[in-house]
Amino acid sequence: MNQLQKEGREFTATLECEHLNEPEDPVARLDLTRAYPLSELTNFRRSFHVNRSGHIITLIDEFSFNRLPDQLEEAFITFALAEIIDNGLGVKLTRHGETLMLRAQQPGMFESRFVAAPGKMTETCSPDHPDQPGFFRIGFKPETLAETMRLSFIFE
Fold it and tell me: Given pLDDT bands bounded at 50, 70 and 90, which one contains residue 152?
């Protein structure tokens, strides 16, 4: 897609939530189709499924295109140190001594890079650049592209 989410009220997502104040595991669903005004994108829905007892969040993105997309990359932004593991199949996120694992549930490859943002933020997160404000951008490219795609990621 190679498209950032657009700014402005006309590009907002719609949100639906289930089980937020109930014993069942909560689910939040976003319709992000309007946030990415691309002629080939016909549907983009994101859902977050929280497994309270397992301390796991599953993020699921569902895409529909009117033709085979040329490319698709999921992007995650974090202030945590992002270390690619398992030959690009996972990411270890570390911050203040706490660790979180990110894994894709479909074939593909993660990559990570530090993005310096001097003057825009004060947060630092890279041991290689301890005095440089910025963040880590984690990208995931699925191995296979299709007109209808479902990408799933687990945070634990």
Answer: very high
The model's pLDDT over 118-150, given as tens digits with 9 standing for 90+, comes to 776 667 666 666 677 888 999 999 999 999 999
Residue with tokens 């997309």: 69
Q: Is position 1 within any domain?
A: no
The boundaries of the domain holding residue 41 are 9-155
Would you tell me how many other CB atoms lie within 10 Å of the CB of residue 134?
A: 19
- pTM, two decimal places: 0.84
| CATH code where residue 119 lies | 2.70.98.70
Reading across the β-sheet that carries 27-31, which strands appear in turn?
Answer: 14-18, 27-31, 41-51, 56-65, 148-155, 98-104, 90-95, 81-85
Q: What is the dihedral of CA 108, 114, 115, 121, to 10 degrees?
A: 130
Query: Phi and psi (nearest 5°) for 3?
Result: -140, 130
C-alpha–C-alpha distance, residues 15 and 29, integer Å: 6
- In the chain, pLDDT over 70 holds for what percent of residues? 85
